[in-house]
Amino acid sequence: MLTDRFYNLWSAKEDEALYRLYPDYEALCRALPSRSYCAIQRRISKLGISKKRKTWTARDLSNLRKFYPDEEWHNLKRIFPGRTANEIRCRAVQAGITRALKETGIDEIDAIRYRARAVNLTMLDVDMLARTNLYFARHRWLTYVDWRAIHRAIKALGGDIHVAWSAYRPPKPRSNYRRY
Fold first, then answer.
1. How many domains does the chain fold into?
2. Whether residue 70 sits in one domain with residue 111
3. pTM for this prediction
4. pLDDT digits (tens, 9 = 90+) for 18-42
5. Cβ neighbours of residue 34 closer than 8 Å, sequence gap 6 or more
6. pLDDT, tens digit (0-9, with 9 covering 90-100), for 103-120
7. Beta carbons of 45 and 76 less than 8 angstroms apart
8. N or C end of the chain, less CB within 10 A?
9. Cβ distance 43 to 12 under 8 Å?
10. Is the domain of 117 the same as that of 150?
């Protein structure tokens, strides 16, 4: 039987194959060679077939609070089997859990990042306050250190810069230096 656009109607046998083989789309395409990938997706959506979602238990949430800030992603996937990195990340955001900041090696940048986190600002917010044209949000300090941008960010975050000099020693003259 055909639709008004001359497509074949879905049979009960095809629907049963969808229920049986979902979510393996390769097997579905082999089992239903007369149907396109998009047609299979649309029919699955129309029938309301979906994969079972695991709910987050109190134990899972406790483990998330314990391990998420410091663990590497491959370890997190091992701790939470059957969950994708995106599911882990989204649940952590919902729970208000943040990853620990990694040290950059530039003390001033680290101080700006820690201060921004303490006052709940993103690096994009810092760029807007300091008018630094996405210097912090795009991690441009990895390629070059812009002291003007750092100074502006420190001022925008309410900080102050202090310079301390060690004992001054004049440089030694070079021995091959000519005097005229």
1. 3
2. no
3. 0.54
4. 898 888 888 988 999 988 899 899 9
5. 8
6. 888 889 999 999 999 998
7. no
8. C
9. no
10. yes
